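From the shared-data thread, chain only:
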Amino acid sequence: MSLKQYKKKRDFSKTKEPKGKTKKKDPKKRIFVIHSHFARNHHYDLRLEMNGVLASWVVPKDPPAEKGIKRLAVHVEDHPIEYAKFHGNIPKGNYGAGTVEIWDNGTYLLKNKSSNKIEFRLIGKKLNGDYVLIKTHYGSKPNKSWLWFKL
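Structure, as tokens:
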């Protein structure tokens, strides 16, 4: 994983988003963050630390806090680890323009990971418990569409 796509989409002379680097962290203390993003459409961004970056998914509706609620999660470019602390305004005319707020954050335990399924336990301020992301083959971006739900 790299940050090439992330950096390609941003003009760091105009946005305060972190440039970031790929970092190796302690795999036993992985972090997660969920951003509430008021861009063109309000959505959430789920970010899980993996391989020195934040693997990221756009979630169009509220995160699933209860068992039985399934949410579409569209896989997008990796973000730098430093993005976990980012909040503020991305100026108009820039990719992702709008207000970004930290909705929840904490650590997570990676239980199982394959190319089409990621099982993990969130230990956050709002979300706690076992969750799963399952890759799907439908939607406008079939290679990037996942379902996210609480077990």
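Residues 4-8 form the longest helix (5 residues).
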